[in-house]
Amino acid sequence: MSLARRDGTRPHPSPIEELEQVVAELPDPELAYMRRSYGPELRKAFSDAIASLSERDRLILRFNLVDGVSLDRVAEMYRVSQSTVSRWLAAARCSIREQVERAFAERLGLQPGESVSLTALIASDFDISLAGLLS
User: Fold this and answer.
1) Is the pLDDT of residue 127 over 60?
2) 64: containing domain
3) Above pLDDT 70, what percent of the chain?
4) Do the domain assignments include residue 23?
5) pLDDT for 1-13, tens place per residue?
6) 97 found inside a domain
7) How many CB atoms lie within 10 A of CB 53?
8) Phi (first) and psi of residue 67, to 5 degrees
9) Would you give the DSSP letter of residue 11?
10) Is 90 contained in some domain?
11) Distance between CA atoms of 110 and 105, rounded to whole angstroms?
12) Of 69, 71, 110, 115, which is closest to residue 89 (Cα–Cα)?
């Protein structure tokens, strides 16, 4: 861990720190393989799950993930509390996850436990996937 200098600037990272940063940014080969192999099926499952949501749930996900609208602002738009919007978002995400896991298991003939772990591995960037589909 580098310390800041007295003038507030950070010293240049050491060669070891630079190497650690490069290694941390390398893609996991197993994850890359899984995404290549199962990515299209996962994308279809995400797309179907989003399509099954109510219009309100799709809109609040889009407002929050794509447009960056705060929960407070969404709450104002719907004339509800921020905690209500938070619950709506949590329920929508839970619904999407459950539908994706179920659809993925059916499409690939996997056992329930295998589907959950495979889905978690491939969809590690869940919000990015959702934002792309909601755009």
Assistant:
1) no
2) 38-134
3) 59
4) no
5) 444 445 555 566 6
6) yes
7) 18
8) -90, -10
9) P
10) yes
11) 5
12) 71
The answer to whether position 51 is within a domain reads yes
Q: Look up tokens 């690939």; give the residue.
A: 108
Give the CATH number of the domain where residue 84 resides: 1.10.10
pLDDT at 104: 75
* Cα distances (Å, whole numbers) of residue 88 to 16, 64, 128: 45, 12, 19
pLDDT for residue 4: 47
The two tokens of residue 22 are: 């490069």
Task: Count structural domains, the chain.
Answer: 1
- State the average pLDDT for the chain: 76
pLDDT in tens, 28-87: 676 677 667 777 777 788 888 889 999 999 999 889 888 889 999 999 999 999 999 999
Q: Are 57 and 87 in contact (CB under 8 A)?
A: no
Closest C-alpha to 42, from 94, 135, 108, 87: 108
* Report field, pTM of the whole predicted structure over 0.85: no
For the stretch 76-99, pLDDT in tens is 999 999 999 999 999 998 898 888
Helices (H), the chain: 15-25, 29-51, 55-61, 71-78, 82-108, 112-122, 126-134
